[in-house]
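Hey,

Quick one before I head out. I ran the complex with S-adenosylmethionine overnight. Inputs first:
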Amino acid sequence: MTTTLDDLTTLRDWLRYAVSRFTAARLVYGHGTSTALDEAAFLILSALHLPVDALDPWLDARLTREERARLSELIEARITTRKPAPYLVNAAYIRGHKFFVDERVIVPRSFIGELICDLMEGDDELAVFTDDPASVRRVLDLCTGSGCLAILAAIAFSDAQVDAADISEDALAVAEQNVADYGLADRVRPIRSDLFGALKGERYDLVISNPPYVTRPAVEAFPPEYRAEPTLAHLGGEDGLDLVRLILDAAPEHLTPNGQLVVEIGQGRELLEAEYPHLPFIWLDTAESSGEVFRIGAAELAGTNKKRRKG
Ligand SMILES: C[S@@+](CC[C@H](N)C(=O)[O-])C[C@H]1O[C@@H](n2cnc3c(N)ncnc32)[C@H](O)[C@@H]1O
């Protein structure tokens, strides 16, 4: 270890070293990065308290002995624990929005987050979520985890009150911390609820949800990086759609007459459309995904239970 600390002096040296070690260790990515280089850059920049989106200004910077010791520890930890980098530095980002994370919550990477950022950045119309953005006064983020989507929704819909529901006390503690960090405690309310269970009588203009939707076989085959996250955040039953069905069935009771439901479902589109043939799902694509997020209005949802084609 002493040799490594002495041999590697610049940030570029450490970046190269981390990429070599990560590649040799055959790490798996997918928690905000997709390559060894991106993962190494994220880990190193985070550890040095530098902006995570710019390497170039610092590549030739020499690091103090203390900084090198910290990087050495983190690179070893990434390889030996196989925890995703965001857990090691307690931070994850959605388009520059930073969230505290640890093993109590899944690492944020929802396509709904991308869509909300698109509309905040003016790249898309608010109409992606609703035909009448000004009327959005109450939002529910169901299965909130770290609270990331609830917080982004509160920023995007600045007049709205947002409920952030999750069944996990652990996740809600993290959500509460993020809500406080964003100074949104007066508008975002973390609530412990099994789906809509604790929300009887509550109606929303917009319900967003990134529920657990991974199939059991896929969860059982997870690499260590994904096993490091709460199984409760991933497992959506045998075919991945258990919670999506429950959300569709209960949503009509919780939407205002013009309310909209937006749900991320992973790879289940075909299955869902076969099971609910009369529901006119609108599929919201992102730069990275196609057919993984649907939107549907309260009026179209009414009577879902009757229309469902049981398999
Ligand atoms: C895929 S994670 C999404 C977290 C966050 N919204 C995000 O996009 O990063 C799913 C979340 O659903 C929660 N969850 C699982 N079953 C639930 C249930 N029956 N009711 C409410 N939340 C549930 C998990 O605790 C987890 O935080």
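The chain has a mean pLDDT of 94.

Talk tomorrow,
K.
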